[in-house]
Amino acid sequence: MSPRTRKFFGTVALFALAAIYSFLVLVAWTAVEARSSQLLEYAFYPVAGLLWVWPAKGILGWMLKP
User: What is the DSSP string of 2-61?
Assistant: First the structure.
């Protein structure tokens, strides 16, 4: 696969990851929100905000392969 094609599919995969991940985080927070404490809220947002990095790192690594 040419680098140009790989970058195109990687970009599409990153957009799909962002959309799906944000939906899953929204559903997860909605399920937890009714029972949430302030401490849980303070812990949830940073964890949820950083968890998408690992799959994105894999996609970017694949995109930038020679």
Answer: -HHHHHHHHHHHHHHHHHHHHHHHHHHHHHHHTT--HHHHHHHHHHHHHHTHHHHHHHHH
Instruction: State residue 61's pLDDT score.
Output: 93
In angstroms, the CA 47 to CA 15 distance is 20
Give the burial class of 44: count Cβ atoms within 10 A of its Cβ; 0-12 exposed, 13-18 middle, 19 or more buried. Answer: middle
Q: What is the DSSP letter of 64?
A: T
pTM for this model (two decimals): 0.79
Q: How confident is the model over 14-34, as pLDDT tens digits?
A: 999 999 999 999 998 888 776
